[in-house]
Design brief:
Layout: E1 10-15, H1 20-35, E2 39-44, H2 90-104, H3 110-119, E3 123-127, H4 128-133, E4 145-149, H5 151-157, E5 162-165
Parallel strand pairs: 1-2, 1-5, 2-3, 3-4
Helix pairs in contact: 1-3
Length: 166
Amino acid sequence: MNTTAERPRKVSIIVSRGTLDGVYPGLILANGARMEGIEADLFFTFFGLYAVLKGFQDKLRIATVGNPALRVPHAKGFPLPTLLGALPGMSAFATAMMKKEMEKLDIPPVSEFIQMIHEAGGHIFACKATVEMFHLTPDDFCPEVEKVLTVGEFYERSAGAQIIFT
């Protein structure tokens, strides 16, 4: 049983994947942390940056190619053959199905989730190396991104935190 003394006081969550299924775990963890009074930092790097880029936030999709765990929600656990993931339109289909299921659970779109976490006191950062590699500027990001950090600055902020990589 977890006691208050054992609970982390701070989490630093690294989001590196830019797919719908790659971004939501970090958002859910950060939101849950804030709801529990735990300080939360989100650090978006590599393709995870698409979650905080204007014009891309709510256009993230499910990766169907090379995803052996992909299952249709109503198929009761039967996997889709990975070959089906390569069919035209399969990613859009899987994304639409996932968004429909998330909507039933009242899980907000990425942009709204980012805003909720920010308003709840969560901190949102972008990775400097990735920003430079992708030739991005601060104007490319949603307003909730507080700062572009180096890895060293991220580690400094994360001192004493539980670091979670999604």
